[in-house]
Amino acid sequence: MRRELTRRALLAGTGAAALSAATGCATGGVTNREAVRLAPGATTPVKGGITVWSWDSAAVALTRLAKKFMARNPGTAIKVVDIGYENAADKMTVGLRADTGLADVVTVDGPKMSGYIGNFPQGMHDLTPLVKGVADDFDQAAWQTVTSEEGRAFALPWDIGPLALFYRRDLFDRAGVDAASLKTWDDYVKAGAAIKEKTGVKLLIMDPAEDSFFACLMQQQGQRQFKDGKVALATPEAVRALELIKAIGDRGLIRWERGWDGQVTATKEGKSSTLPQAAWWSGTLTAEMPELKGKFGVVPLPAFKPGGARTSNQGGSMLCIPAQSKNPRLAWAFTKFLLTDKDNQVSMLKHEGLFPAYLPALKDPYLSEPQAYYGGQRAWKVFADLAPHIPAVEYNKDGAKAGDITQKALTGAVLRGNDPKRQLQDSAEQLAGATGRETVAR
């Protein structure tokens, strides 16, 4: 989801404290009853009303499509409430702990879902019996974020953030660099040095306080902070990712900007020649920088090795049905209507810039149309082709703790000059101590 997902990545600490505090409650949430499972096969019409929580452009999409759903299902009432992204995680955590106060359907921010599943295992409806026919139609990296370690599904993926490399055509042209030649990250660093020499512009923008590039580089190699339940911060993949960022920084190719506004302003002012960003960044460019029409292009991410993965993921969201929902059948009907209908998914891409996790939607002709903002390039097709190749990685209830420690590792190596391998070994030990987990053998 465009701006709000960038803020999720850059402001990942929002709500993290509340979620981290909940990790001490192993049973979590519903303590006096089990979450009632929705059963497939009901044929009577849905009726009654539900409340749906979301934020920003996602709330706009829900409100628009709720009208379509109600028209098709007389006797139903869908109320969408924009609770704001900053409040969402706290409200979800408080509602799950108290077993009261949540909406019938709640939008959840990407990997945070694993924390809710792990800490509040009875707090949401188990959708496993209902998704058997549609599970394979969703991006499998996104599907990993909605399932428990036992493979039970507690939400449906909504949108995803496949990464590609946004680049400034004009700066690349001035430097004589062909964006299509950036096959590996080594190519990328060399091109960045050439572009800076010819134009004075740095290669990319990063946030010194809250950044997700390191985690995305790990996912590109098939892991994040955990692997098989163990801490994976000192693995070769993690070291390789941090060494890459340090190499870029050591060459003076990073422009450091704090927060969302800093990133947007610096991009608008042409302070970087590239941005490794998710599909939803396109919405920010077209909405906030219309004057730069024709100056951007999109190519797949460089790979770590020739023939390696050319994408990763940043952001994404899902819809879940809390166990305390008073009308779970209608809640499921509305969720299924939104997220397993190709036309609805494509409409949310067209109108609100939400890139579908539902794979059939990626085959729609709209995603192959030329886009004027990108000089006629079929930019959406780049992301559609990359999306099925997003590496699936492991998430669990300790994601918030891992995020905090990962950021400290990035800062230590890139800004303070610490050795990346040693820094990550220390971080792995710290995370293992904080979570009671073993570390992956080096």
Summary, kept brief:
With 442 residues, the chain is an alpha/beta fold. It is built from 17 helices and eleven strands.
Your description of this structure?
The protein is α/β, with parallel strands linked by helices and 442 residues long. It has 17 helices and eleven strands. It has helices at 2-10, 16-22, 56-72, 85-98, 112-119, 140-146, 169-175, 185-199, 213-220, 236-250, 259-268, 281-288, 328-339, 342-352, 379-386, 399-415, 420-435; strands at residues 48-54, 76-82, 105-109, 156-168, 204-206, 226-227, 230-231, 254-256, 274-278, 296-299, 313-320. The strands form three sheets. Strands 1, 2, 3, 4, 9, 10 and 11 form a seven-stranded mixed sheet that branches. Helix 16 runs antiparallel to helix 17 (420-435). The longest helix has 17 residues, at 56-72. The two termini are 37 Å apart.
Helix and strand composition category: alpha/beta
User: How many helices?
Assistant: 17
Which whole number gives the mean pLDDT?
89
Give the overall form: globular
Distance between the termini: 37 Å
Beta-strand percent range: 5-15%
Radius of gyration: 22 Å
How many strands appear in the DSSP assignment? 11
Task: List the SSEs and their pairings.
Blueprint: H1 2-10, H2 16-22, E1 48-54, H3 56-72, E2 76-82, H4 85-98, E3 105-109, H5 112-119, H6 140-146, E4 156-168, H7 169-175, H8 185-199, E5 204-206, H9 213-220, E6 226-227, E7 230-231, H10 236-250, E8 254-256, H11 259-268, E9 274-278, H12 281-288, E10 296-299, E11 313-320, H13 328-339, H14 342-352, H15 379-386, H16 399-415, H17 420-435
Parallel strand pairs: 1-2, 1-3, 5-8
Antiparallel strand pairs: 3-11, 4-9, 4-10, 4-11, 6-7
